[in-house]
Amino acid sequence: MSNFEPREISVWDPLVRLFHWLLVVGFCVAYVSQGDVFERLQDRLDGELVQLVHVWAGYTIAGLLAIRLIWGFVGPRYARFSDFVHPPRVVAAYVRDVLTLRARRHLGHNPAGGAMIVFLLLGLLLTIVSGVALYGADKGLGPLAGWLAESSESTVEFLEEVHEVATNGMLLLIAGHLLGVLWESILHRENLVRSMFTGRKRP
User: Tens digits of per-residue pLDDT, 59-107?
Assistant: First the structure.
């Protein structure tokens, strides 16, 4: 029997990788075309066009999220929630091991990374729902317009606040995600960003 061990094996399937990078692009487009950034763009571009870009970026993110949630139950091993969603005590123990440089390497998402994925998905869900609700209440457009088109000014302001808080929360989660990727890459001496492009990692 051969003792040959492959240099790399497939871990991240094409759909997970495509979801990841399309989500990065979609979120960046949505963020740049909203809020304070949007107001600055209005001076140079058609305001309605910028808003339309923001809305469709949000719809794209919603579609990606729906696909990823389904894939989390029916996809291959490392894409499934059952592979990386752990009880809080397991996550806490792993974080402690990371801080003391004793954390063991995982081929898929480690417990802390899995928890971060869950928080990111929930954050995206809140951002999308609040954005769609705001669109219906403020503009009388979108799938929730039938329920929210006649909303009061206070309701619109409340939804704006929720959407803004959710968006800023996503920025904090993304920063934490990037820091975790950098730390794990250094700790285990592997390029995790590259693996999300190629789908492959060392055994």
Answer: 999 999 999 999 999 999 999 999 999 999 999 999 999 989 899 999 9
Q: Is 103 exposed, middle or buried (0-12, 13-18, 19+ CB in 10 A)?
A: buried
For 18-77, give the secondary structure using H, E and C: HHHHHHHHHHHHHHHCCHHHHHHHHCCCCHHHHHHHHHHHHHHHHHHHHHHHHHHHHCCH
- Is the CB of residue 156 less than 8 Å from the CB of residue 131? no
Residue 141 — φ and ψ, nearest 5°?
A: -130, 165
| Residue 145: φ, ψ to 5° | -60, -35
CA 27 to the chain's CA centroid: 8
> How many whole angstroms from its chain centre is CA 188?
23
Q: How many CB atoms lie within 10 A of CB 81?
A: 16
What's the CA gap between 203 and 166, in Å, rounded? 37
Distance of alpha carbon 174 from alpha carbon 169, whole angstroms:
9
What is the band of 124 on the pLDDT scale with cuts at 50, 70, 90? Answer: very high
Please state, as a whole number, how many other Cβ atoms lie within 10 Å of the Cβ of residue 184: 19
Cα three-residue angle 192-19-55, rounded to 5 degrees: 130
Local structure of 140: helix, strand or coil: coil
Q: What is the pLDDT of residues 146-164, one digit of tens each?
A: 999 889 999 999 999 999 9
